[in-house]
Amino acid sequence: MSNNYKAINWNKIDDAIDKATWEKLTEQFWLDTRIPVSNDLKDWHQLDDDHKYLVGHVFGGLTLLDTVQSQDGMASLRRHVRTQHETAVLNNIQFMESVHAKSYSTIFSTLNTPDEIDEIFQWSDSEEFLQNKAKWISDIYNDTAEDPLKQKVANVFLETCLFYSGFYTPLYYLGHNQLPNTAEIIKLILRDESVHGTYIGYKFQLGLKERGENEQQQMKDWLYDFLMKLYENEEKYTHLLYDPVGWTEDVLTFVRYNANKALMNLGQDPLFPDTAEDVEPTVINGISTTTSNHDFFSQVGNGYRLGEVEAMTNEDYEKWANDDPEK
Ligand SMILES: [Fe+2]
Ligand SMILES: [Fe+2]
């Protein structure tokens, strides 16, 4: 006889962080269609061809990565959950990854011509260094024999590091008071990724603690090697996109800063010397996960608001981690 099927009970929570993350993510729910991107057209027409190319292709790259997350990432993580509530949180994340992937198309349809959009998608479906990222990560996701903790590592590296060479561009423009509505979409995505990376990293840390000392060391060795492989590829990708506008070194500083944050989410020591002080100040200001106030009924302002939300901090997680879930 097979085991009985178990109904999910939200009145009996095994891990308080599941519930807190669910609440956080549902509070900050948003949709791309409610951001008035067309208000950016005036700024867009003032950009030269090199910068327009950069914006379009950076978003092409981000589309591919969010596609990986929505199609393969969460499905992979859902195979090895600790609680039923974790499955529910991953379901929420999966849907939002589809919103993220779609939102770049909302930007394209406003700023780019149909021919330009076709070219961007041909590029993202074939560009070597971008495809490397998508393939290396999705290969780990889709290998059912792979260590589930490695799948979480791959997820956090994608969420907290590999997106950021792309996020740099809209954050840069935001810091220079250009393309604010486009940047608002990116900030909403970034706010989600920040919670996703912290949550998956936390689940990784719980799993790692249960392993023996040797296994823990092997996992650490593997994850630092994998991060270096991803970073070396990221250097090539960043040169390809940013050399024409001369921002490459600043972008790579930002990538290394976020690689350290990914390691922090996984409970590991930083790999690179770069800190927030090394990152271009206009970009670091844009990374704060608050969004500007937005009344979406009248489409005044360029933020987006649905309920009161504030950025998740490590202290929040530590507090929950120490809370007794039975209370
Ligand atoms: Fe995403
Ligand atoms: Fe995400």
Can you put this structure into words, describing what you see?
It is a single chain. The chain is globular and about 65 Å long. It contains 13 helices and no strands. It has helices at 16-27, 41-46, 49-78, 84-111, 114-124, 128-142, 148-162, 164-175, 180-209, 213-242, 248-265, 281-286, 314-322. Helix 3 runs antiparallel to helix 7 (148-162) and helix 6 runs antiparallel to helix 10. Helix content is 68%, strand content 0%. The chain starts with 15 loop residues before the first helix and ends in a 5-residue tail after the last helix. With 327 residues, it is an all-alpha fold. It binds fe (ii) ion (FE2) (2 copies).
Summarize the structure.
The chain has 327 residues and is mainly α.
The tally of strands reads 0
In the CATH scheme, the class would be: Mainly Alpha
Ligands in the model, by name, code or SMILES, are: fe (ii) ion
N- to C-terminal separation? 36 Å
CATH architecture annotation: Orthogonal Bundle
Element order, helices and strands?
Answer: HHHHHHHHHHHHH
| Average predicted confidence as pLDDT | 90
CATH topology term: Ribonucleotide Reductase, subunit A
CATH superfamily: Ribonucleotide Reductase, subunit A
Category by helix and strand content: mainly alpha
Number of helical elements:
13
> Main β-sheet: number of strands, strand sense, barrel status?
none
Which word captures the global form? globular
The fraction of residues assigned to DSSP E strands is under 5%
Radius of gyration: 20 Å
Helix content: 55-70%
Low-confidence stretches: 293-309
Summed up, the domain count is 1
